[in-house]
Specification:
The protein is built from 12 helices and 25 strands. It is of the alpha+beta class. Helix content is about 25%, strand content about 25%. The protein has 4 domains: about 120 residues, RRM (RNA recognition motif) domain (Alpha-Beta Plaits); about 140 residues, Alpha-Beta Plaits (2-Layer Sandwich), CATH 3.30.70.330; about 90 residues, RRM (RNA recognition motif) domain (Alpha-Beta Plaits, 2-Layer Sandwich), CATH 3.30.70; about 80 residues, 2-Layer Sandwich (Alpha-Beta Plaits), CATH 3.30.70.330. The strands form 7 sheets. It has a 6-stranded antiparallel β-sheet. Strands 18-13-15-14-19 form a 5-stranded antiparallel β-sheet, with helices on one face. Strands 2-3-1-6 form a 4-stranded antiparallel β-sheet, sandwiched between helices. A hairpin with a 7-residue loop joins strand 14 and strand 15. The protein is globular, with a radius of gyration of 24 Å.
Length: about 500
């Protein structure tokens, strides 16, 4: 072992003896950030995979030091931005492992050097398995399989069987529980072999893997309704009706068929039930008796308004405008109204067309960096955004966009429903006139302050192109500034996030 490794190990021994917090206070300011996070009060029977899964929704996990005897761990993310996003999310939503709360803070270490430390072989194998799943490639070494590896095909569809079904489990309850781990596209419930079952499709197989790892064996209600979860052989669910038995969240235009109309996940809020706001929360899912009595009556409840209003906070009040929020949140649904708070301009209300679109926007944009700040998006206590009364001072902070021509989802069955992706550094451009060149697009986006890494037209369709910028934050700001940009020849640029890379 080298001298530097020995020193590093000694530092960690000091840390696990309770000095991490002291050293952090002495050597770092309270706001100092690091891509290494310090986790405390983890259960003694925790696995590498379970700790790593806490970081997966926020970016690549590059290293881990697990100290079971001290109930602590150090998790290294690939970037400081990913670590900040993770900590910002878990600050209001404390994660749980084995029903035990885990507390997270920045470490005073800027990186983990664990190559020469003992007992790291399993951790290295787990991290390598995550890389394989995330990249979709084959392992280049003979690393042992770990619990991170989904079956071949990496299905984003889970098969859920509810055992010991003492109380009814509704589609709304499943949505509430599983949306903690990512964006849900579709749910189908049914009874087979006298057991209540469901198929649930995520937008990303990693989200499905994360949910399976965390929820398999958990109880929906105290001491009953146990979830047994496997990957489904299906890769894409076909849903004909939106009702209490099935739901396609990308197709709000579907009929209800013979079933009861779907009430939507946010109805739980009206009854005081917790509704998750973004992927990654590992909170307990057992419900109290009072919540239970309300939950089992939800399917027959009528007249309760769905909540389609989001509270967006931690905005950069110096630059944010209602129009910018309209464009950004409009990527995930049709925005009807935006109101920046008159006396608290770092906060705003955003009213979406319906509760499903609000949930979608919330899950993708909570924790996103915008104009140098990590914004937070949660469901608001309000169910509508009120326009200012006549003569009321507003300074243009409240805008009504109900009749805007920029709504992306006003046409039922629009292809836009199938092309909803999380914010990414690569943007999809469309509605480009023939006269526009790659150099023109590069200069246009460089003019927003972005670093343009690559740009190319679609081979078979010159009206569309991909452009890759220097960071996700740059892409978010460029989308806000250039969506609907007039390119001439009666063509206005359409900009959205892409799942592809150039």
């Amino acid at each position: 072992m080298t001298h530097s490794s020995e020193t590093f190990r000694g530092t960690f021994i000091a840390a696990v003896n309770g000095n991490e917090n002291t050293k952090s206070r002495r050597n770092r300011s309270p706001c100092s950030t690091s891509r290494v996070l310090h986790l405390r009060k983890i259960p003694s029977d925790v696995t590498d995979a379970e700790v790593i899964s806490l970081g997966l929704p926020f970016g690549k996990v590059t290293n881990l030091l697990l100290l079971k005897g001290k109930h602590q761990a150090f998790l290294e993310m690939s970037s400081e931005e990913a670590a900040v996003t993770m900590l910002n999310y878990y600050t209001p939503f404390t994660p749980h492992i084995h029903s035990q709360p885990v507390f997270i803070q920045f470490s005073n270490h800027s990186e983990l050097k664990t190559d020469n430390l003992p007992n790291q072989a399993r951790t290295a194998a787990a991290l390598q398995a995550v890389d394989v799943v995330q990249s979709g490639s084959q392992a280049t070494t003979d690393a042992p399989a770990t619990e991170f590896r989904p079956p071949p095909g990496q299905s984003s569809v889970l098969r859920i069987v509810v055992e010991n079904l003492v109380y009814p489990v509704t589609l709304e309850a499943l949505y509430q529980i599983f949306s903690k781990f990512g964006t849900i596209l579709k749910i189908v419930t049914f009874t087979k072999n006298n057991k209540f079952q469901a198929l649930l499709q995520y937008s990303d197989p990693m989200n499905a893997n994360h949910a399976k790892l965390t929820l398999d064996g958990q109880n929906v209600y105290t001491a009953c309704c146990t979830l047994r979860i496997d990957f489904s052989k299906f890769t894409n669910l076909k849903v004909k009706y939106n009702n209490d038995k099935s739901r396609d969240f990308t197709r709000p235009d579907l009929p209800s068929g013979d079933g009861q109309p779907f009430l939507g996940p946010s109805i739980a809020t009206a009854f005081g039930l917790p509704v998750p706001s973004a992927p990654g929360t590992l909170g307990p899912i057992g419900m109290s008796n009072s919540a239970l009595s309300e939950q089992v009556t939800l399917p027959s409840t009528t007249g309760v308004p769905e909540n389609s209003v989001l509270l967006v906070s931690n905005l950069n009040s110096k630059v944010i405008t209602p129009h910018e929020l309209f464009i950004l949140f409009g990527v995930y649904g049709d925005v009807y109204r935006v109101k920046i708070m008159f006396n608290k301009k770092e906060s705003a209300l955003v009213q979406m067309a319906d509760a499903s679109q609000a949930q979608l926007a919330m899950s993708y944009l909570n924790g996103q960096r915008l104009y140098g700040k990590f914004i937070r998006a949660t469901l608001s206590k309000y169910h509508t955004v009120q326009l200012p009364r006549e003569g009321q001072e507003d300074q243009g902070l409240t805008k009504d966009y109900r009749n805007s021509h920029l709504h992306r989802f006003k046409k039922p069955g629009s292809k836009n429903f199938k092309n909803i992706f999380p914010p990414s550094a690569t943007l999809h451009l469309s509605n480009i006139p023939p006269s526009v060149t790659v150099d023109y697009l590069k200069n246009l986006f460089a003019g927003t302050g972005s670093t343009v890494k690559a740009c190319k037209f679609f081979q078979k369709d010159h009206k569309m192109a991909l452009i890759q910028l220097g960071s996700v934050e740059e892409a978010v700001q460029a989308l806000i500034e250039l969506h609907d940009y007039d390119l001439g020849e009666k063509h206005h640029l359409r900009v959205s996030f892409s799942k592809s890379k150039i």
